[in-house]
Amino acid sequence: xxxxxxxxCWPLLRIFETETQPANYKKSHRFALNCIGFIFxxxxxxxxxxxxxxxxxxxxxxAVIFFGSGLSAVVVGLLGSDGAVAKVWGSK
Length: 92
Hints:
Blueprint: H1 2-8, H2 10-16, H3 27-54, H4 60-79, H5 82-89
Helix pairs in contact: 3-4
């Protein structure tokens, strides 16, 4: 099942994937990336809900930005390699 999700998300994953093994990758980097991703996804849903209740069209902008950032972080955190997670954090 994981392979199916990797194939579906490959356009996003190929941006972050690297061939080399990162020298300073830690397991906590992946955990932190998943936590930040879930926080951003929660923020996107709260922002969309508040925007819908206020009936302001401009409220969709933060919801879309938070959703894109959160989804990217969760996809790389759950499906990406150690090199991809290190690349998100800027580690080489």
